[in-house]
Amino acid sequence: MASSLSTPKQFLAGAPSSDGCSRLGSLRSPSRLSSSGLQLPARRQHSKRLVIKAAGSTYGNFFRVTTFGESHGGGVGCIIDGCPPRIPLSESDMQVELDRRRPGQSRITTPRKETDTCKISSGIADGLTTGSPIKVEVPNTDQRGNDYSEMSLAYRPSHADATYDFKYGVRSVQGGGRSSARETIGRVAAGAVAKKILKQFCGAEIIAYVSQVHKVVLPDDLVDHRTLTLDESERNIVRCPNPEYAEKMIAAIDAVRVKGDSVGGVVTCIVRNAPRGLGSPVFDKLEAELAKACMSLPATKGFEFGSGFAGTFMTGSQHNDEFYMDEHGRIRTTTNRSGGIQGGISNGEIINMKVAFKPTSTISRKQNTVTRDGHETELIARGRHDPCVVPRAVPMVEAMVALVLVDQLMAQYAQCMLFPINTELQEPLSRNPEPANVSL
């Protein structure tokens, strides 16, 4: 006769005890068995060890962002926890960034029509952040769930359809659910808040642009990172600051779009005026946090920082960034192959990185695949998709970089700025010595 379990918590009883052995073994002891089935001990010792931490939708330690929602559900959004109080904030601050990532912007993006209008439903009073969680919601208004009927039966090649089934045994078929880039709305909304904090507190600027589409590569020396402006990257539909190469990139996207195919590319992102001292050795190095954050974006396949892979072709004497004293008495580097970070800690130079995006997985060309019940078949995916995700990925990359920096800024302030700094070696984090006066 099969034994019955008196409680599902027995499945959590495998945590090691103080002697290093699993307590699950003690539950299997004959003394614990009776004719009525498996019984739990009368006393639950060390119950705090029976904790499973849910993960996957939250980023940050001090400035914590959790995204929610699915591509064709009721809506998407985020909850921002840990935002400092008394910061002027409105929905229009977020809407500017959301408009940059919304679909239907041009012929080289998905034709799905969404206004992506956001609503803040908590955490704001009289136009100021209160320090409590900020909830941001964006409704889905242009859903076409029937476009995905074939995907309920067969897996799209190189998409997350199969792996979500492998992991969960169930998935949201319409639009890819959580694997859809529509999830990034919450990231971009939260990134708008992070950008505002960074700009107001230390004058940091984050600007990203498209530096490659398929085989069209913008040479690095055609963009001056010291003077680059957001307007330059936003002046055309592909978000490339060089007009000549922008036209080549648009042509490359058009060439595959009309064939029902797709291409990938690269987004370059820079950060100016980032404070020195952000990032922590050893496992929480700033470039490691940036890589994790950027690689969590949909369709990412690579991350380069500073000199990146090109640095492997150089010698140490060629690659090292030599120090000098500038006219203001600050320690600077003559070159910036380190990408603004050394030893995992920002050094005050321009932070720069590149993020590679693969071609969009969902294409309208016939492909070989298998069904959910294990039969080989062919699939022509329907739905509305970007022929190249890279132009719309620009504000997404900026948002993730901002989330990393504001989280690291708050960590640095908490650990190293609690007491007076060593002015011979350290600089204030803030470019504004006096906080802005806010009338309540």
From TrEMBL:
The keyword Protein transport does not apply. Residues 22-41 have a biased composition (Low complexity). Pfam families: Chorismate_synt. Its EC number is 4.2.3.5. It comes from the Eukaryota. Keywords: Amino-acid biosynthesis, Aromatic amino acid biosynthesis, Lyase. One of its GO terms (biological process) is aromatic amino acid family biosynthetic process. SUPFAM superfamilies: Chorismate synthase, AroC (SSF103263). The keyword Lipid metabolism does not apply. Residues 1-46 are annotated as: Disordered. Reduced FMN (FMNH(2)). InterPro entries: Chorismate_synth (IPR000453), Chorismate_synth_AroC_sf (IPR035904), Chorismate_synthase_CS (IPR020541). One of its GO terms (cellular component) is cytosol. Its cofactor is FMNH2. GO terms for molecular function: chorismate synthase activity; FMN binding. It catalyses: 5-O-(1-carboxyvinyl)-3-phosphoshikimate = chorismate + phosphate. Catalyzes the last common step of the biosynthesis of aromatic amino acids, produced via the shikimic acid pathway. Belongs to the chorismate synthase family. This is Chorismate synthase.
